[in-house]
User: Fold this.
Amino acid sequence: MPIAPSSHCHNHQPEPAPDCSLCPRLTDFRTQNSAENPSWFNGAVPSFGNSDARLLVVGLAPGLKGANKTGRPFTGDYAGDLLYATLAKYGFAKGTYRARADDGLKLVDCMISNAVRCVPPKNKPIGSEIKTCGRFLADRIATLPNLKVIIALGRVAHDSSLTAIGAQKKAHAFGHAESHA
Assistant:
């Protein structure tokens, strides 16, 4: 995907506050989760990795018992087991992934983020939530001066990444294992 700076009309912030309240449905769901699991992170999950990253991995949203619990993208669920092992295999992570945010795992030349930063009910964000959180993805991308590659995990991540860099979806059709220059 071609990478271009974002052009949003808001205070440029690559990360929402943990207690972000821009999406009422997600805020209500987080509040409910906080009551049921007060020791969990239960907030807008920040990106993880290096600001000098050449690789950005974009997922859909935090998992209920994964990143929503741990506060780190793809940490604490099966998707994280796969992702972090793959990143380590190709030199983008070092240390040992133990499915906890304090496991000491470090990313190398890589950052991980999500299209939507708060856990959505049934892992299904709605359009307004995707659009609202898109500003954070666009601003995150704009803070990565060495970024060369975005790996989008799924259609929402793909489409959100295209929007964030100002690329047209019709010119960059979604498909598994597809790539765009």
Summary: DSSP finds five helices and six strands in the chain. The chain has a mean pLDDT of 92. The CA atoms of residues 21 and 111 lie 24 Å apart.
